[in-house]
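Sanity check

After download, print the first record. It should look like this:
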Amino acid sequence: MEKPFKLLGILDVENIPCSRDSVLYGSLGSVVAGLGHFLLTSRIRRSCDVGIGGFIVVTLGYWFHCRYNYAKLRIQERMARDGIKNKILYESTHLDPDRKQTNSNSSH
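Expected structure tokens:
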């Protein structure tokens, strides 16, 4: 069995949703922020600090955005699953909402 890849020994990048993309976008944000600051100011140490700050901001920003969308998707999936389960359970019974609508329309 293969040992999963863990970033810094704690973050299981393969199995935790959004972690891989967050780290990749954070790395890109770090390079863009650091290089952009260096090209504007030519200050090496400060540019490295800006690069690290860019990594943290972009990683956390994308992490929260992705996790929010992931949670929203999970809620929608659960609602759809419950709806399908209820449809299967109540189909052709007196509790079926579709059956009530057709019976009330045909009696008029």
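If your output differs, re-run the checksum step. Summary of this record's structure: The first strand starts at residue 6 and ends at 7.
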